[in-house]
């Protein structure tokens, strides 16, 4: 007796609707002149450096999640044919409708329920010899905020910060996706804050806030006061708190 294909159960961790809403809010906030862009500036600089290092020739590129628009502008200036897309293109059950020389993903890969499947779709969307670069937040991101929200919730804690991917796990996922060769790198960004409100605003500007499917309850006035109090012990000698962003760069060739 021949068995049929084994169905893989995909956990429901993230909300696609909240992902779309977060992305469109970030697009709107990026129209403000002083909107925070430092995480995306780093992502974009890294992509361009990898293109320079590999001497990537101009070709068709699917660019997903470029909320600032800066990478699309730079690539078009270099002669690339760029198709920009938001998170809607990341239908975890459907492959991409066409193939590209390059598939680039900025900041969205770590919010997919079926990450292994998404990487397989990305590989299948590459022309022979094409390259995928996916940048996302990894393990070690937002440790200060994690402490603050634990204090804010008190005795009853809620999941407010996303589960995070570390470098070994990302490397394993890339291998499972079947890329001809792959590299996973990580690096750390640090930002310093005098006020908790500014940290939250920077996350909203860049579309980096939570989109868990089981959304935690909103902060009440008293829980926000506890969050502010939890921020105080983290201050360093100059009165500022250091927050950390670990960036994972997943590069794979078809």
Strand content: 15-25%
Report the span from N to C terminus: 35 Å
| H/E series | HHEHEEHEHHEHHE
User: What's the average pLDDT?
Assistant: 93
Strand tally, please? Answer: 6
Proportion of helical residues: 25-40%
Tell me the strand order in the biggest sheet.
Answer: 2-1-3-4-6-5
Largest sheet properties: 6 strands, mixed
Q: Helical stretch count?
A: 8
Categorize the overall geometry: globular
* Alpha-carbon Rg, integer: 19 Å
Low-confidence runs (pLDDT<50, min 5 residues)? Answer: 1-6
Secondary-structure-derived class: alpha/beta
Report on this structure.
- The chain has 254 residues and is α/β, with parallel strands linked by helices.
- The chain has 8 helices and 6 strands.
- The chain has helices at 16-29, 38-54, 70-77, 115-124, 143-153, 167-177, 196-205, 221-231, and strands spanning 60-64, 81-85, 100-106, 126-137, 181-193, 241-253.
- It has a 6-stranded mixed β-sheet with strand order 2-1-3-4-6-5, with helices on both faces.
- Helix 4 crosses helix 6 and helix 5 (143-153) packs across helix 8 (221-231).
- The radius of gyration is 19 Å and the shape is globular.
- Mean pLDDT is 93; it is low at 1-6.
